[in-house]
Amino acid sequence: MKNYKQLETKPYLLKNKIQNYLWGSKGKAAFIPKLLNMEYNQEENYAELWIGAHPKAPSHITINNKEVALNKIISENPNQILGKRVASQFKNTLPFLFKILSAGDALSIQAHPNKEQAAILHKKDPKNYPDDNHKPEIAIALDSLYALVGFKRPRDIESGLIKYPELSEFIGKEVVKNFCEQLNGAQKIQKSNLKNLYSTLMKQAINQKDKLKNSLNSLAKRLINSNIELNEEEKLFLELKKKYPNGDVGLFSIFLLNHIHLKSGEAIFLKAGIPHAYLKGNIIECMANSDNVVRAGLTPKFKDISTLIEILTYDYGPIEILNRNQSTENISYITPTPEFNIKSINLKEFDKKIESPDHKVEILLLTKGKISIQWQAGSTNKTMEVYKGQSLLIPAALPDYSINALDNSTLFKVQIP
Questions:
Q1: What domain range includes position 164?
Q2: What is the pTM (predicted TM-score) of this model?
Protein backbone atom coordinates (compact mmCIF):
# COMPACT_ATOMS: atom_id res chain seq x y z
CA MET A 1 0.00 0.00 0.00
CA LYS A 2 1.37 3.37 -1.02
CA ASN A 3 2.28 5.86 1.67
CA TYR A 4 1.30 9.52 1.15
CA LYS A 5 2.85 11.08 4.21
CA GLN A 6 5.01 13.40 2.11
CA LEU A 7 2.09 15.63 1.20
CA GLU A 8 2.60 19.00 -0.45
CA THR A 9 0.99 21.88 1.43
CA LYS A 10 -1.34 23.43 -1.15
CA PRO A 11 -5.05 23.56 -2.12
CA TYR A 12 -6.28 20.31 -3.67
CA LEU A 13 -9.06 19.92 -6.22
CA LEU A 14 -11.57 17.31 -5.06
CA LYS A 15 -13.16 14.64 -7.22
CA ASN A 16 -16.56 13.89 -5.68
CA LYS A 17 -19.07 11.06 -5.84
CA ILE A 18 -22.61 11.51 -7.22
CA GLN A 19 -25.36 9.49 -5.51
CA ASN A 20 -28.14 8.41 -7.90
CA TYR A 21 -31.06 7.94 -5.49
CA LEU A 22 -34.50 7.61 -7.10
CA TRP A 23 -35.80 10.92 -5.70
CA GLY A 24 -33.03 12.91 -7.41
CA SER A 25 -33.71 15.32 -10.27
CA LYS A 26 -33.59 13.88 -13.76
CA GLY A 27 -33.15 14.87 -17.42
CA LYS A 28 -32.89 18.52 -18.38
CA ALA A 29 -34.00 19.55 -14.87
CA ALA A 30 -31.07 17.73 -13.24
CA PHE A 31 -29.20 20.37 -11.23
CA ILE A 32 -25.98 18.49 -10.45
CA PRO A 33 -24.91 17.83 -14.06
CA LYS A 34 -25.48 21.53 -14.86
CA LEU A 35 -23.41 22.58 -11.86
CA LEU A 36 -20.59 20.23 -12.85
CA ASN A 37 -20.86 21.10 -16.56
CA MET A 38 -21.20 17.43 -17.47
CA GLU A 39 -23.42 15.48 -19.84
CA TYR A 40 -26.45 13.95 -18.16
CA ASN A 41 -27.86 10.49 -18.69
CA GLN A 42 -31.60 10.71 -19.38
CA GLU A 43 -32.20 7.57 -17.32
CA GLU A 44 -30.22 8.64 -14.24
CA ASN A 45 -31.48 10.43 -11.13
CA TYR A 46 -28.87 12.91 -9.85
CA ALA A 47 -29.66 13.20 -6.15
CA GLU A 48 -26.56 14.15 -4.15
CA LEU A 49 -22.95 15.18 -4.63
CA TRP A 50 -20.88 14.11 -1.62
CA ILE A 51 -17.88 16.27 -0.74
CA GLY A 52 -15.86 14.93 2.15
CA ALA A 53 -14.30 11.83 3.66
CA HIS A 54 -17.21 9.59 4.62
CA PRO A 55 -16.07 6.00 3.95
CA LYS A 56 -19.26 5.26 1.97
CA ALA A 57 -18.28 7.72 -0.79
CA PRO A 58 -15.09 9.67 -0.02
CA SER A 59 -13.85 12.45 -2.26
CA HIS A 60 -10.50 11.86 -3.98
CA ILE A 61 -7.48 14.07 -4.58
CA THR A 62 -4.71 13.55 -7.14
CA ILE A 63 -1.19 12.94 -5.88
CA ASN A 64 1.60 12.02 -8.32
CA ASN A 65 -1.03 11.39 -11.02
CA LYS A 66 -2.88 8.92 -8.76
CA GLU A 67 -6.36 9.45 -7.32
CA VAL A 68 -6.36 8.79 -3.58
CA ALA A 69 -9.35 8.69 -1.20
CA LEU A 70 -9.52 11.69 1.11
CA ASN A 71 -10.17 9.56 4.21
CA LYS A 72 -6.91 7.66 3.52
CA ILE A 73 -4.93 10.87 3.05
CA ILE A 74 -6.36 12.34 6.26
CA SER A 75 -5.56 9.19 8.25
CA GLU A 76 -1.91 9.45 7.16
CA ASN A 77 -1.63 13.25 7.52
CA PRO A 78 -4.16 14.27 10.21
CA ASN A 79 -2.27 17.24 11.64
CA GLN A 80 -1.28 18.65 8.26
CA ILE A 81 -4.77 18.45 6.77
CA LEU A 82 -7.12 18.80 9.74
CA GLY A 83 -4.92 20.81 12.09
CA LYS A 84 -3.72 19.57 15.48
CA ARG A 85 -6.77 20.73 17.45
CA VAL A 86 -9.30 19.34 14.98
CA ALA A 87 -7.36 16.06 14.61
CA SER A 88 -7.34 15.63 18.37
CA GLN A 89 -10.97 16.69 18.87
CA PHE A 90 -12.40 14.46 16.12
CA LYS A 91 -10.04 11.46 16.30
CA ASN A 92 -8.18 12.15 13.04
CA THR A 93 -11.34 12.34 10.91
CA LEU A 94 -12.97 15.15 8.94
CA PRO A 95 -15.90 16.06 11.20
CA PHE A 96 -18.37 17.15 8.50
CA LEU A 97 -19.91 15.92 5.26
CA PHE A 98 -20.69 18.59 2.64
CA LYS A 99 -23.31 17.96 -0.07
CA ILE A 100 -25.28 19.31 -2.95
CA LEU A 101 -28.78 17.84 -2.72
CA SER A 102 -31.19 18.01 -5.65
CA ALA A 103 -34.71 16.81 -4.88
CA GLY A 104 -36.87 16.24 -7.94
CA ASP A 105 -39.21 14.15 -5.82
CA ALA A 106 -40.02 13.82 -2.13
CA LEU A 107 -37.45 12.28 0.20
CA SER A 108 -38.60 10.09 3.06
CA ILE A 109 -39.90 11.62 6.28
CA GLN A 110 -37.00 11.02 8.63
CA ALA A 111 -35.11 12.08 11.73
CA HIS A 112 -31.54 11.67 12.93
CA PRO A 113 -30.33 10.25 16.26
CA ASN A 114 -28.18 12.13 18.75
CA LYS A 115 -24.67 10.84 19.53
CA GLU A 116 -25.68 8.51 22.34
CA GLN A 117 -28.57 7.07 20.31
CA ALA A 118 -26.38 6.69 17.20
CA ALA A 119 -23.79 4.65 19.11
CA ILE A 120 -26.47 2.28 20.42
CA LEU A 121 -28.15 1.92 17.01
CA HIS A 122 -24.85 1.26 15.21
CA LYS A 123 -23.90 -1.44 17.69
CA LYS A 124 -27.34 -3.08 17.49
CA ASP A 125 -27.94 -2.72 13.71
CA PRO A 126 -24.82 -1.72 11.72
CA LYS A 127 -26.50 -2.61 8.43
CA ASN A 128 -29.16 0.09 8.74
CA TYR A 129 -27.10 2.48 10.92
CA PRO A 130 -23.66 2.43 9.27
CA ASP A 131 -21.80 4.67 11.74
CA ASP A 132 -21.99 5.73 15.38
CA ASN A 133 -22.15 9.48 14.80
CA HIS A 134 -24.97 12.00 15.13
CA LYS A 135 -26.13 14.00 12.11
CA PRO A 136 -27.09 17.62 12.87
CA GLU A 137 -27.46 19.34 9.49
CA ILE A 138 -28.06 22.63 7.74
CA ALA A 139 -29.94 23.07 4.46
CA ILE A 140 -29.28 26.25 2.44
CA ALA A 141 -31.50 26.87 -0.59
CA LEU A 142 -29.60 27.43 -3.83
CA ASP A 143 -32.78 28.30 -5.72
CA SER A 144 -35.66 27.18 -3.49
CA LEU A 145 -36.65 24.40 -1.12
CA TYR A 146 -40.07 23.04 -0.21
CA ALA A 147 -39.92 20.85 2.89
CA LEU A 148 -41.82 19.39 5.81
CA VAL A 149 -39.98 20.24 9.04
CA GLY A 150 -41.00 19.70 12.67
CA PHE A 151 -44.44 19.36 14.25
CA LYS A 152 -47.02 22.11 13.93
CA ARG A 153 -48.32 23.89 17.01
CA PRO A 154 -50.71 21.62 18.95
CA ARG A 155 -53.67 23.93 18.18
CA ASP A 156 -52.88 23.73 14.46
CA ILE A 157 -52.69 19.95 14.74
CA GLU A 158 -56.08 20.01 16.47
CA SER A 159 -57.52 21.95 13.51
CA GLY A 160 -56.22 19.25 11.17
CA LEU A 161 -57.68 16.46 13.26
CA ILE A 162 -61.08 18.17 13.03
CA LYS A 163 -60.79 18.98 9.33
CA TYR A 164 -59.63 15.48 8.40
CA PRO A 165 -61.76 13.01 10.39
CA GLU A 166 -60.19 10.15 8.45
CA LEU A 167 -56.93 10.92 10.29
CA SER A 168 -58.51 11.24 13.76
CA GLU A 169 -60.57 8.10 13.34
CA PHE A 170 -57.52 6.13 12.28
CA ILE A 171 -55.55 7.30 15.32
CA GLY A 172 -58.48 6.60 17.66
CA LYS A 173 -61.07 8.77 19.41
CA GLU A 174 -59.66 8.44 22.95
CA VAL A 175 -56.11 9.44 21.98
CA VAL A 176 -57.36 12.37 19.91
CA LYS A 177 -59.73 13.49 22.66
CA ASN A 178 -56.95 13.40 25.26
CA PHE A 179 -54.69 15.44 22.96
CA CYS A 180 -57.31 18.10 22.22
CA GLU A 181 -58.53 18.47 25.82
CA GLN A 182 -55.07 19.43 27.17
CA LEU A 183 -53.97 22.08 24.69
CA ASN A 184 -53.66 24.63 27.50
CA GLY A 185 -51.38 22.40 29.52
CA ALA A 186 -47.69 22.97 30.22
CA GLN A 187 -45.22 22.36 27.40
CA LYS A 188 -44.13 19.08 29.00
CA ILE A 189 -47.73 17.82 28.96
CA GLN A 190 -48.26 18.94 25.36
CA LYS A 191 -45.06 17.17 24.25
CA SER A 192 -46.16 14.00 26.05
CA ASN A 193 -49.58 14.13 24.39
CA LEU A 194 -48.01 14.81 20.99
CA LYS A 195 -45.77 11.77 21.47
CA ASN A 196 -48.80 9.66 22.36
CA LEU A 197 -50.72 10.92 19.32
CA TYR A 198 -47.88 10.41 16.84
CA SER A 199 -46.69 7.08 18.25
CA THR A 200 -50.26 5.74 18.16
CA LEU A 201 -50.54 6.82 14.51
CA MET A 202 -47.27 5.09 13.61
CA LYS A 203 -48.04 1.87 15.51
CA GLN A 204 -51.54 1.67 14.04
CA ALA A 205 -49.98 1.94 10.59
CA ILE A 206 -47.92 -1.20 11.28
CA ASN A 207 -50.67 -3.22 12.93
CA GLN A 208 -53.62 -2.18 10.74
CA LYS A 209 -52.31 -1.84 7.20
CA ASP A 210 -55.67 -2.46 5.54
CA LYS A 211 -57.34 0.15 7.73
CA LEU A 212 -54.56 2.63 6.89
CA LYS A 213 -55.06 2.02 3.18
CA ASN A 214 -58.83 2.43 3.47
CA SER A 215 -58.53 5.62 5.54
CA LEU A 216 -56.12 7.18 3.06
CA ASN A 217 -58.32 6.15 0.13
CA SER A 218 -61.35 7.64 1.86
CA LEU A 219 -59.62 10.97 2.43
CA ALA A 220 -58.28 11.05 -1.14
CA LYS A 221 -61.73 10.36 -2.56
CA ARG A 222 -63.30 13.11 -0.45
CA LEU A 223 -60.68 15.66 -1.49
CA ILE A 224 -60.94 14.75 -5.18
CA ASN A 225 -64.72 15.19 -5.08
CA SER A 226 -64.56 18.42 -3.10
CA ASN A 227 -66.01 21.57 -4.64
CA ILE A 228 -63.70 23.75 -2.52
CA GLU A 229 -60.24 24.69 -3.78
CA LEU A 230 -57.65 22.47 -2.15
CA ASN A 231 -54.94 23.94 0.05
CA GLU A 232 -51.22 23.24 -0.31
CA GLU A 233 -51.06 20.24 1.99
CA GLU A 234 -54.15 18.65 0.42
CA LYS A 235 -52.61 18.99 -3.05
CA LEU A 236 -49.38 17.47 -1.77
CA PHE A 237 -51.32 14.62 -0.16
CA LEU A 238 -53.05 13.75 -3.44
CA GLU A 239 -49.83 14.10 -5.44
CA LEU A 240 -47.90 11.72 -3.17
CA LYS A 241 -50.88 9.40 -2.70
CA LYS A 242 -50.48 8.36 -6.37
CA LYS A 243 -46.99 7.09 -5.58
CA TYR A 244 -48.15 5.05 -2.60
CA PRO A 245 -51.44 3.47 -3.72
CA ASN A 246 -51.16 0.74 -1.09
CA GLY A 247 -50.80 3.25 1.72
CA ASP A 248 -47.94 4.94 3.59
CA VAL A 249 -48.27 6.53 7.03
CA GLY A 250 -46.15 9.44 5.84
CA LEU A 251 -49.19 10.65 3.88
CA PHE A 252 -50.99 11.40 7.16
CA SER A 253 -47.86 13.10 8.52
CA ILE A 254 -48.31 15.78 5.84
CA PHE A 255 -51.12 17.23 8.02
CA LEU A 256 -49.05 17.21 11.22
CA LEU A 257 -45.78 18.83 10.09
CA ASN A 258 -44.86 22.43 9.21
CA HIS A 259 -44.69 23.24 5.49
CA ILE A 260 -41.55 25.32 4.83
CA HIS A 261 -40.62 27.31 1.71
CA LEU A 262 -37.06 28.61 1.49
CA LYS A 263 -35.89 31.18 -1.05
CA SER A 264 -32.34 31.35 -2.38
CA GLY A 265 -29.93 31.99 0.49
CA GLU A 266 -32.38 31.08 3.26
CA ALA A 267 -31.58 28.10 5.47
CA ILE A 268 -32.80 25.83 8.25
CA PHE A 269 -30.76 24.00 10.87
CA LEU A 270 -31.96 20.57 11.99
CA LYS A 271 -30.84 19.17 15.30
CA ALA A 272 -31.33 15.53 16.31
CA GLY A 273 -34.87 14.25 16.73
CA ILE A 274 -36.69 16.64 14.36
CA PRO A 275 -38.92 14.95 11.74
CA HIS A 276 -38.39 16.36 8.25
CA ALA A 277 -38.68 15.62 4.54
CA TYR A 278 -37.23 17.62 1.67
CA LEU A 279 -39.87 17.66 -1.08
CA LYS A 280 -38.44 19.70 -3.94
CA GLY A 281 -35.50 22.01 -4.57
CA ASN A 282 -31.74 22.33 -4.80
CA ILE A 283 -29.73 22.94 -1.66
CA ILE A 284 -26.32 23.11 -0.07
CA GLU A 285 -26.36 20.64 2.80
CA CYS A 286 -23.77 20.15 5.50
CA MET A 287 -23.89 17.76 8.42
CA ALA A 288 -21.75 15.93 10.92
CA ASN A 289 -19.90 13.13 9.11
CA SER A 290 -22.67 10.54 9.25
CA ASP A 291 -25.16 8.70 7.07
CA ASN A 292 -27.56 7.65 9.84
CA VAL A 293 -31.25 8.04 8.96
CA VAL A 294 -34.32 6.83 10.86
CA ARG A 295 -37.15 6.77 8.32
CA ALA A 296 -40.80 7.36 9.16
CA GLY A 297 -42.66 7.28 5.85
CA LEU A 298 -42.92 8.29 2.19
CA THR A 299 -40.41 5.61 1.30
CA PRO A 300 -40.24 1.97 0.24
CA LYS A 301 -36.96 1.71 2.20
CA PHE A 302 -36.43 0.31 5.70
CA LYS A 303 -38.62 2.08 8.27
CA ASP A 304 -37.77 1.78 11.96
CA ILE A 305 -40.94 3.01 13.63
CA SER A 306 -40.10 1.98 17.20
CA THR A 307 -36.74 3.76 17.04
CA LEU A 308 -38.27 6.82 15.43
CA ILE A 309 -40.87 7.17 18.19
CA GLU A 310 -38.13 7.16 20.81
CA ILE A 311 -35.62 9.52 19.17
CA LEU A 312 -38.07 12.33 18.28
CA THR A 313 -37.90 15.32 20.63
CA TYR A 314 -41.57 16.29 20.01
CA ASP A 315 -40.61 19.94 19.83
CA TYR A 316 -43.33 21.87 18.03
CA GLY A 317 -44.08 25.25 16.48
CA PRO A 318 -42.63 27.43 13.71
CA ILE A 319 -39.13 26.65 12.41
CA GLU A 320 -36.46 29.35 12.52
CA ILE A 321 -35.37 30.50 9.06
CA LEU A 322 -31.73 31.60 8.85
CA ASN A 323 -30.89 34.61 6.65
CA ARG A 324 -34.56 35.51 6.32
CA ASN A 325 -33.61 39.09 5.40
CA GLN A 326 -32.16 37.65 2.16
CA SER A 327 -28.71 39.18 2.53
CA THR A 328 -26.75 38.81 -0.70
CA GLU A 329 -23.34 39.77 0.69
CA ASN A 330 -21.12 37.40 2.64
CA ILE A 331 -23.39 35.29 4.85
CA SER A 332 -22.27 33.32 7.89
CA TYR A 333 -24.55 30.41 8.78
CA ILE A 334 -23.61 29.79 12.39
CA THR A 335 -24.71 26.45 13.84
CA PRO A 336 -24.75 25.22 17.45
CA THR A 337 -22.76 22.12 16.50
CA PRO A 338 -18.95 21.90 16.90
CA GLU A 339 -18.50 20.11 13.57
CA PHE A 340 -19.09 22.93 11.08
CA ASN A 341 -20.09 26.45 10.12
CA ILE A 342 -20.70 27.64 6.56
CA LYS A 343 -20.05 30.93 4.82
CA SER A 344 -21.50 32.02 1.51
CA ILE A 345 -19.14 34.44 -0.25
CA ASN A 346 -20.33 36.58 -3.16
CA LEU A 347 -17.64 38.28 -5.24
CA LYS A 348 -17.79 40.75 -8.09
CA GLU A 349 -15.34 40.45 -10.96
CA PHE A 350 -11.82 41.60 -9.89
CA ASP A 351 -12.67 41.37 -6.16
CA LYS A 352 -9.88 39.93 -4.02
CA LYS A 353 -10.04 38.30 -0.57
CA ILE A 354 -7.21 37.07 1.61
CA GLU A 355 -8.22 34.07 3.72
CA SER A 356 -6.51 32.35 6.66
CA PRO A 357 -7.63 28.84 7.67
CA ASP A 358 -6.51 29.51 11.26
CA HIS A 359 -4.77 26.11 11.43
CA LYS A 360 -8.03 24.28 10.63
CA VAL A 361 -9.14 22.47 7.49
CA GLU A 362 -11.58 24.15 5.06
CA ILE A 363 -13.50 23.01 1.99
CA LEU A 364 -14.58 25.44 -0.74
CA LEU A 365 -17.26 24.90 -3.40
CA LEU A 366 -17.76 27.30 -6.30
CA THR A 367 -21.42 27.40 -7.39
CA LYS A 368 -21.15 30.35 -9.78
CA GLY A 369 -18.46 32.08 -11.85
CA LYS A 370 -14.70 31.56 -11.96
CA ILE A 371 -11.94 32.36 -9.47
CA SER A 372 -8.22 31.91 -9.01
CA ILE A 373 -6.62 30.74 -5.78
CA GLN A 374 -3.13 32.03 -4.97
CA TRP A 375 -0.78 30.77 -2.26
CA GLN A 376 2.88 30.80 -1.31
CA ALA A 377 5.04 27.68 -1.78
CA GLY A 378 8.39 28.56 -0.26
CA SER A 379 9.50 31.66 -2.13
CA THR A 380 7.21 30.94 -5.10
CA ASN A 381 3.74 32.35 -5.72
CA LYS A 382 1.44 29.67 -7.12
CA THR A 383 -1.97 30.05 -8.77
CA MET A 384 -4.83 27.69 -9.56
CA GLU A 385 -7.99 28.51 -11.52
CA VAL A 386 -11.26 27.14 -10.19
CA TYR A 387 -14.47 26.82 -12.22
CA LYS A 388 -18.16 26.52 -11.35
CA GLY A 389 -18.88 23.14 -9.77
CA GLN A 390 -15.34 22.54 -8.58
CA SER A 391 -14.42 22.11 -4.93
CA LEU A 392 -11.17 22.49 -3.02
CA LEU A 393 -9.60 21.07 0.10
CA ILE A 394 -7.65 23.76 1.98
CA PRO A 395 -5.31 21.94 4.41
CA ALA A 396 -4.80 23.42 7.86
CA ALA A 397 -1.05 23.64 7.24
CA LEU A 398 -1.57 26.29 4.53
CA PRO A 399 -1.09 29.58 6.43
CA ASP A 400 -3.15 31.74 4.07
CA TYR A 401 -4.35 32.06 0.50
CA SER A 402 -6.10 34.64 -1.66
CA ILE A 403 -9.23 34.38 -3.76
CA ASN A 404 -9.39 36.47 -6.93
CA ALA A 405 -12.71 36.72 -8.77
CA LEU A 406 -12.27 36.30 -12.53
CA ASP A 407 -16.03 36.71 -12.97
CA ASN A 408 -19.01 37.44 -10.70
CA SER A 409 -18.74 34.43 -8.42
CA THR A 410 -20.37 32.64 -5.47
CA LEU A 411 -18.60 30.13 -3.29
CA PHE A 412 -19.43 28.28 -0.10
CA LYS A 413 -16.79 27.69 2.54
CA VAL A 414 -17.14 25.06 5.26
CA GLN A 415 -15.09 25.69 8.39
CA ILE A 416 -14.83 24.21 11.86
CA PRO A 417 -15.74 26.64 14.69
A1: 154-253
A2: 0.94
